[in-house]
Design goal:
The complex is a heterodimer of chains A (624) and B (390).
Chain A: E1 2-12, H1 16-28, E2 32-36, E3 50-52, H2 56-65, H3 70-77, E4 78-84, E5 94-99, H4 101-113, E6 118-122, E7 125-131, E8 134-140, E9 144-153, E10 162-165, E11 168-171, H5 181-189, E12 194-201, E13 204-206, E14 216-218, E15 242-246, H6 249-258, H7 280-286, E16 294-299, E17 306-310, H8 318-326, E18 336-338, E19 341-348, E20 365-367, H9 377-395, H10 409-420, H11 444-455, H12 460-482, E21 484-485, H13 490-499, E22 507-508, H14 509-512, H15 520-527, H16 535-545, H17 547-564, H18 582-591, H19 596-600, H20 607-623
Parallel strand pairs in A: 1-2, 1-9, 2-6, 9-20
Antiparallel strand pairs in A: 3-5, 4-5, 7-8, 8-9, 10-11, 10-19, 12-19, 13-17, 13-18, 14-15, 15-16, 16-17, 21-22
Helix pairs in contact in A: 1-9, 2-9, 2-11, 3-4, 6-8, 12-16, 13-15
Chain B: E1 6-10, E2 21-25, H1 30-42, H2 52-59, H3 68-89, H4 92-117, H5 130-150, H6 153-156, E3 160-164, H7 171-179, E4 197-203, E5 206-212, H8 222-237, E6 240-246, H9 253-260, E7 267-272, H10 274-277, E8 282-284, E9 290-293, H11 302-312, H12 319-349, H13 352-370, H14 375-385
Parallel strand pairs in B: 3-5, 3-6, 6-7, 7-9
Antiparallel strand pairs in B: 1-2, 4-5, 8-9
Helix pairs in contact in B: 1-12, 2-3, 3-12, 4-5, 4-13, 4-14, 5-12, 12-13
Classes of the chains: A alpha+beta (624), B alpha/beta (390).
Amino acid sequence: MQTSDHFDVIVIGGGHAGTEAALAAARIGANTLLLTQNIETIGAMSCNPAIGGIGKSHLVREIDALDGAMARATDRAGIQFRVLNGSKGPAVRATRAQADRVLYKQAVRQIVESTPNLRVFQGSVIDLVVDGDRVRGVVTQSGLTFGADAVVLTTGTFLGGLIHVGLEHHPGGRAGDAPSNALAARLRALPFRVDRLKTGTPPRIDGRTVDFSVMQIQPGDEPMPVMSLIGSAAEHPRQVPCHVTHTNAHTHQIIRAGLDRSPLYTGVIEGIGPRYCPSIEDKIVRFADKASHQVFVEPEGLSTFELYPNGISTSLPFDVQVNLVRSIKGFESAHITRPGYAIEYDFFDPRDLMYSLETKAIEGLFFAGQINGTTGYEEAAAQGLLAGANAALKVAGKPAWCPRRDEAYIGVLVDDLINNGTNEPYRMFTSRAEFRLVLREDNADARLTERGRELGLVGDQRWAAYLAKRERVEAIRAMLRSHVVSPGDSVAIEIEQRCGEPIGKPTDLLTLLRRPKITVDALSAIVGAFPSNDAAAEQIAIDVKYQGYIERARDDIERVRRHEEVRLPDDFDYAAIAGLSTELKQKLAQARPDNLARAARIPGITPAALSILLVHARKARASA
Amino acid sequence: MIDEGLALSFAGPRSFTGEDVVELHGHGGPVVMDLLLRAAIDAGARIARPGEFTERAFLNGKIDLAQADAVADLIASRSEAAVRSALRSLSGEFSTRVNEIAREAFDLRVFVEAAIDFAEEDVDFLSDGHVAGRLERLIGLLDVVLRTASQGALLNEGITIVLAGRPNVGKSSLMNRLLGYDRAIVSETPGTTRDVLAESVDIDGVPIRVVDTAGLRSAGDAIEREGIRRARQQIDDAQQVVLVVDDRAIATAADVIAEQDLPTDRLTIVANKIDLSGGITGERVAEGPQQLGVSALTGAGVDSLRQRILSLAGYRDDAGVFSARRRHLEALKSAGDCLRHGAAALREAGAGELLADDLRRAHDHLGDIVGVTTSDALLGEIFSRFCIGK
């Protein structure tokens, strides 16, 4: 066995989780190696060519705030940008971008290749070097051993990957890529809880064979949104629209007729299915009354004719796929370039991880991404960043870090996974965040960048941009606070006319912003001290208007922190505690929450049960 | 004025909990206690959690480690039992309405959260006034429940006890004993009570409706048959049935139950005329429904019957019960406040996310009564109702 160099951190896998992990470790200063089966696939998007969306864009902004790559790559590859939920409020406002696959990959690769401390190597990892309960390195297919103090595993859907099209199936990590079966077998032998999940993708379509004239057009937003704090619309490539069409009764009939050859409905696929509808088959079967389903026709890139029909993921046999596609309006003559398929793969129970994403069983081994049971590039990237950072921190002898639920969606994600596990591919939704009003796209940097700088994650360019924004926010806030408007003066009259709000006594502009009818856009037009659409002014307005709600959220956050101070011992014998239901005893024994706040988040826990835990915790501490 | 009583003040650490404690001792029964509790809340107090006083005593070192388990037990049992009692003492009507409210609040949340998290999937309900309308209706429902509950109507209405049994076992005499005066016609001739007599009885300040039926027996004249039909109706509708039998023929109780098809899950057997039989007074240990030995003539054992009726109705002289009931009502009030807040946010700012926050809080308050819902459960409900893709 040939031995190669030793690294501080080795990342296995070059997808969204792997790249963010490798970059984060390198930024902190660890000597990092990114090991991938195929260097050409670094930063590849496996299915939907889009980044962001509701819940997901929040993760992207947080990754950006910590100087990750995703948002910047999106700005360089985004070919259609939209803001969703614009009218429902700033906390649920989300940015979504269609991305050119090729440009995206290029952008990520460029960032990887220009980051110091980071090396890339093409090789398939088949084994881990484990010494007792510590990881020491990895072994590739060609017999090379790389030593490492920390290893981050981000193999996505490759472990034991099995691709299904109709009743035919074959091993695959992704269409066109070999799975990692040797590694999968090796990992299954280690003390981890493993199960199978599945996900799917639609057929890709040749855009030259599509009739767009009968479809609804969906252009991007004007002005063009920007993903990264340090990005700009100028970086965006040429913009193109998406289109929308629908399935119909005929489509549904074709699908129903093909169900007996569907791997899903004939029980061939073992992986657990989600509660939502991952495939068009699910939609037809579960919601039989729905007359038609939306199909978003998304361009895959500027230099290709391929299209991604979002909404018809399927693993039906190919002949059925062809018929069902051609029954859809606009696709009557469509040619399929790649079949849709379902893929099942191994995932590891995230309850076997610590908050740093290090495994409890093996020291130095970190898991991130889809292998922890999540779905989505953004969810994977967020975990990757965290795992990579913590791997580097560990090697440097520094404590690990994980944001809290009230600090970031990343915190919600990790906390949900670590505490509750998952039995369907976990996707982020804003409704998962109880502090949603505080975790907004617009304040991701205010929440995370300073911490990121302390940890060594945030580089100089971003730090400077962040400081500049912070100063600007302070300056505008001060200006608004000091500008007093009196009844009868010209500004007051204009405000009354424009906003329909009478001004009864001398009030400063900051206080006036509290009133729902007075908007920051109106003030911009009237007072002229800052342009409309100014991000800093916008952030101030949100803080002011949401003050009451934010204060309530802060009270809740305080309560949680107090509960966190009540530590629960590792060896707590939950079975022996009188007054808890059997179900709760089991859940507590399995979760082993280390403080009362975490116990409080276990589904089914009651206030009475918490009181009981509090009593016993104090008792345990007193008698220790 | 609510009541005249005693107020005792203990300065910490020389009190039960080790903190400053004030005890208010009243005279009245459950209804007065409840009024006292409400007045305290209006003055700014918060209802203690189950076992909280004991918990504080322990946490302040007033009770030692050995008693910690007992404390935990106390918290758990009081919590469950109190909740059960509270729900029982509030009528089935209350429970039904609260569940309806909780259901509607959950439904609204499902709509609003779906509209937020799945805006692209054709589920936008916030813009069309649909949600605003439902919100108004929900607030209205809550207001009605709160109003009637605070008027005591829900506490009082609907607790009906039916006296059943063969003719001439002394039902009417028993009724008169409970009432305290001679309302029913009592004579030696079997079948004297032709009508169904209903009276409101005051037991420790709690109004209970007692219904005396015609002595049920087969056949007889038309008036008797009509009386029998009405009696049957009463038995089916009542919360509790008291089967009166002559203690000297106590073995016939099982026969009567079978004959008259009495519901055994809400039955008490009163063995009357112990003055003649010499049987045990009051609570008896026996298989099957609770038996009480009573003499309507002398009054012996009638008190045990009163207490049993109260206890089955959920009224025990236990502060835990009132707290639980009051907690329910407070939870409803808080939920209503949140909903109003949310309706305003939607109206004034069109802010769906602020409404969602208020709905979540309202739902959490209702969770005190109907159990907590996690955000994951909410998601599950959204997925089962709306066709959401990958």
